């Protein structure tokens, strides 16, 4: 190594170490500490649970409840943000001490984590557009036209709708908050949404086109929000239970809920429940094989894998075609086009796929462009990958000797004929290896589509896992196996193609 | 038929062509010789519009190329259909068979059907001695064979003239001989051509006119006899003497 190269190397290592230190400072998990109650929630889930007000402060009835409990326990409350459906996992990992965010009590969860006494009894509210005459009662969902119902992924609402209406409705589960589904109903992409009552009350003023349909219903026998704690922290459970009982007795809880206008006639039962907790296992388990309806995990996951295959196989050819056109435009088009397409490529490569999907799915309806979730996913993937394919093709074109184009032109071909007959066929062969790699990468990127409620493999996996937390190993292995089954044949095909077209350029 | 008048081409600050004048009559075989870097290849590339020039004019029959970048696309195509080109590096299309290479012009330029053009293509490949290689890929052929396919490919659109850009420089002597004899055969049949070459014996025996190019100018033109035996210009004398050794 030359002296100069050596200094560059040392500098690079130094910068890397500096970044490690920075990560240690900025990305440090909040450490467990005997004077702190780390409570986990998802503020993007929205009001009235946990949300930030205009000043950027954390508010919401659960935020206030967390501070009340911490005060009673002589601890200081520290909020830890996490995606709602992953909060129990963070609890298991030890990143947080309690999960306090509208988590319903289920026997499945009870078997893995310890629950406190309930702090709220919820009901589910059906919301639809005011101008939609066809949905005036819950029973209107039993219709032959298969209404599209949006729900929060992994929520009690999802289980309730599935159990009650089954195949009469099409259920679309969104991981991103409550408002996505409400917005989609307002925009007409969904027919209705089922939300927990507090959320329905809170967001009513923000979605004036929607109204509550029918009475709020209690799903199942145990419609309770509880706080989850690690099983080994039994002492913490007892102290929180005491704090909650006190709040029930002295009216603190009622005042809090009245302030947020979520106090209902159900709530007085909380006091009774607090004396008999957890509920005795009476009667048959009500949510037996809820999601799967008796099907095996493998069948459910395989069905989702079909969606993954369709997403990938429909979007990749579009991406390749679009990429080819972009590359041709950049190399052989006029200067202004080259300029425009360079921006296209850099913009798409420089922004996350997730964001692009959001724009296509949630923002395009604002200009009256409505695309079903699946096709929005295909479009998003195709557009995103077209930028990478354009770069592959550009490199492929540049690898073809100039003499090829000259020979074609000298024969009297037009530039477009020369491209179609001479240049593109050679470029396609050159780019087979990188394009196949991208195809495999795209296969895995299809998982991003779960944010717009396309139930592909990863989305289905986390849904199943949420409802069957004990089956994590089985589910994880099955899912990984399915991905491998899909991508490995691709690698084999790629290898064969490379052999079939040995380097054609002399 | 081909008329080049006072052609000037600059490459940045370098003047590659410095007022070149050249005319070639129908049926004439013109050889362009001279030291490397004299502008011979550039001249050919300007004639069929692969490169632009700054001053002067190129005309082929009634078609004219003017200075500047923006040759009208249609004009260029018409000119190239009349004037074919054979390159030093052959530039065969590697993804096509020998037959498909020869058919490329008739099919994609003249718009003929494959069946229609195949008979003619076979005849051309027979003529260059490759009638048994129709389905071979370029990579399976020797350099000399590739260049002969390239000649057949150029002939397949029935050009009125062919420009040969150092057709044998990338070949060893034996293979060069094969290719030169094909070109000589074409010359005998009355094909108009301009051949940029370093093969002096070829220029001497086949060409009707020899042009000596040096430093972007034509130093001397004349019948081979005169240019080789009694050159009038110092540049020619020097070049002829060098190539003897």
Write the layout of secondary structure elements.
The complex is a heterodimer of chains A (506) and B (245).
Chain A: H1 3-26, E1 36-41, E2 51-52, E3 58-59, H2 61-72, E4 76-81, H3 87-93, E5 98-99, H4 107-110, E6 114-115, E7 120-121, E8 124-129, E9 147-152, H5 156-165, E10 169-174, H6 179-187, E11 192-196, H7 197-203, E12 210-217, E13 224-225, E14 228-229, H8 234-249, H9 252-259, H10 269-273, H11 297-332, H12 335-350, H13 353-363, H14 373-399, H15 402-410, H16 415-430, H17 432-445, H18 457-467, H19 472-500
Parallel strand pairs in A: 1-4, 1-5, 9-10, 9-11
Antiparallel strand pairs in A: 2-3, 5-14, 6-14, 7-13, 8-11, 8-12
Helix pairs in contact in A: 11-12, 11-14, 11-17, 11-18, 11-19, 12-14, 13-14, 14-16, 14-17, 15-16, 17-19, 18-19
Chain B: E1 2-11, E2 14-24, E3 29-33, H1 40-47, E4 55-60, E5 63-65, H2 73-82, E6 83-86, H3 98-108, H4 114-127, H5 143-155, E7 161-165, H6 173-188, E8 192-196, H7 200-206, E9 209-214, E10 217-222, H8 224-229, H9 234-244
Parallel strand pairs in B: 3-8, 3-9, 6-7, 7-8
Antiparallel strand pairs in B: 1-2, 1-4, 4-5, 9-10
Quaternary structure:
heterodimer
Percentage of β-strand residues of chain A:
5-15%
Shape of chain B: globular
Q: What structural category do the secondary elements of chain B indicate? A: alpha/beta
Main sheet: strands, sense, barrel of chain B: 6 strands, mixed
Spatial shape of chain A: globular
User: What strand line-up does the widest sheet of chain A have?
Assistant: 4-1-5-14-6
Q: Which radius of gyration of chain A do the C-alpha atoms yield?
A: 28 Å
The largest chain-to-chain contact, stated as pair and per-chain residue counts, equals:
A-B, 22 and 25 residues
Q: Briefly, what CATH class of chain B? A: Alpha Beta
How many distinct folded domains of chain B? 1
- pLDDT below 50 for ≥5 consecutive residues: which ranges of chain B? none
End-to-end C-alpha gap of chain B: 36 Å
Mean pLDDT of chain B: 91
CATH fourth-tier homologous superfamily of chain B: P-loop containing nucleotide triphosphate hydrolases
Which strand order does the major sheet of chain B show?
6-7-8-3-9-10
User: What is the CATH topology classification name of the largest domain in chain A?
Assistant: MetI-like fold
- Percent helix of chain B: 25-40%
């Amino acid at each position: 190594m030359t002296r100069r190269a050596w200094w560059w190397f040392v500098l690079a290592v130094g910068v890397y170490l500096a970044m490690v230190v920075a990560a240690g400072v900025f990305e440090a998990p909040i450490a467990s500490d005997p004077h702190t109650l780390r409570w986990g929630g998802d503020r993007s889930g929205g009001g009235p649970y946990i949300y930030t007000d205009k000043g950027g402060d954390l508010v919401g009835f659960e935020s206030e409840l967390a501070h009340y409990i911490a005060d009673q326990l002589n601890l200081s409350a520290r909020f830890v943000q996490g995606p709602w459906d992953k909060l129990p996992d963070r609890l298991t990992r030890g990143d947080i001490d309690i999960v306090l965010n509208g988590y319903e009590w289920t026997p499945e969860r009870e078997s893995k984590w310890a629950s406190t006494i309930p702090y709220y009894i919820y009901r589910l509210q059906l919301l639809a557009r005011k101008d939609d005459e066809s949905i005036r009662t819950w029973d209107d969902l039993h219709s032959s036209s298969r209404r599209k119902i949006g729900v929060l992924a992994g929520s009690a609402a999802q289980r309730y709708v599935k159990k009650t209406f089954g195949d009469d409705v099409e259920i679309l589960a969104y991981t991103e908050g409550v408002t996505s589904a409400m917005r989609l109903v307002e925009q007409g992409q969904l027919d209705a949404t089922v939300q927990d009552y507090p959320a329905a009350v809170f967001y009513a003023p923000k979605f004036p086109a929607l109204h509550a349909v029918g009475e709020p219903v209690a799903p199942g026998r145990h419609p309770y929000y509880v706080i989850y704690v690690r099983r080994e922290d039994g002492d913490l459970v007892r102290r929180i239970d005491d704090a909650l009982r006190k709040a029930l007795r002295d009216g603190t809880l009622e005042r809090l809920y009245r302030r947020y206008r979520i106090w209902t006639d159900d709530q007085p039962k909380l006091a009774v429940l607090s004396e008999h907790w957890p509920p005795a296992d009476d009667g048959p388990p009500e949510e037996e094989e809820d999601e799967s309806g008796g099907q095996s995990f493998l069948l459910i996951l395989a069905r989702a894998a079909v969606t993954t295959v369709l997403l990938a196989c429909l979007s990749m050819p579009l991406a390749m075609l679009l990429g080819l056109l972009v590359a041709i435009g950049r190399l052989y088009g006029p200067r202004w086009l080259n300029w425009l397409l360079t921006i296209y490529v850099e913009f798409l490569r420089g922004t996350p796929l997730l964001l692009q999907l959001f724009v296509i799915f949630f923002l395009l309806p604002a200009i009256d462009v409505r695309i079903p979730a699946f096709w929005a996913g295909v479009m998003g993937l195709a557009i995103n990958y077209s930028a990478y394919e354009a770069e592959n093709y550009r490199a492929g074109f540049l690898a073809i000797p100039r003499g090829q184009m000259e020979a074609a032109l000298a024969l009297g071909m037009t530039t477009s004929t020369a491209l179609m007959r001479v240049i593109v066929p050679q470029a396609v062969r050159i780019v087979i290896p990188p394009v196949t790699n991208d195809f495999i990468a795209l296969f895995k990127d299809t998982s991003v589509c779960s944010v717009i409620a396309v139930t592909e493999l990863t989305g289905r996996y986390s849904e199943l896992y949420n409802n069957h937390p004990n089956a994590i190993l089985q589910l994880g292995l099955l899912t990984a196996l399915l991905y491998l089954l899909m991508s490995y044949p691709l690698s084999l095909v790629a290898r064969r193609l490379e052999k079939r077209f040995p380097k054609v350029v002399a | 038929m081909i008329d080049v008048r006072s052609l000037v081409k600059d490459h940045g600050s370098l003047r590659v062509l410095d007022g070149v004048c050249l005319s070639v009559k129908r049926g004439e075989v013109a050889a362009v010789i001279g030291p490397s870097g004299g502008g011979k290849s550039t001249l050919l590339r300007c004639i069929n519009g692969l490169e632009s020039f700054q001053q002067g004019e190129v005309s082929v029959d009634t078609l004219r190329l003017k200075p500047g970048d923006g040759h009208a696309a249609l004009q260029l195509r018409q000119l190239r259909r009349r004037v074919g080109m054979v390159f030093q590096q052959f530039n065969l299309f590697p993804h096509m068979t020998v037959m498909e290479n020869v058919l490329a012009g008739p099919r994609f330029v003249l718009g003929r059907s494959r069946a229609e053009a195949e008979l003619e293509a076979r005849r051309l490949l027979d003529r260059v001695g490759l009638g048994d290689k129709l389905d071979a890929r370029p990579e399976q052929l020797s350099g000399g064979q590739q260049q002969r396919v390239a000649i057949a490919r150029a002939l397949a659109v029935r050009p009125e003239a062919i420009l040969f850009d150092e057709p044998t420089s990338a070949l060893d002597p034996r293979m060069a001989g094969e290719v030169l004899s094909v070109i000589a055969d074409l010359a005998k049949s009355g094909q108009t051509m301009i051949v940029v070459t370093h093969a002096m014996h070829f220029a001497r025996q086949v060409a009707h006119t020899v042009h000596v190019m040096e430093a972007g100018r034509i130093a001397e033109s004349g019948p081979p006899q005169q240019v080789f035996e009694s050159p009038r210009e110092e540049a020619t004398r020097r070049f002829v003497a060098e190539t003897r050794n």
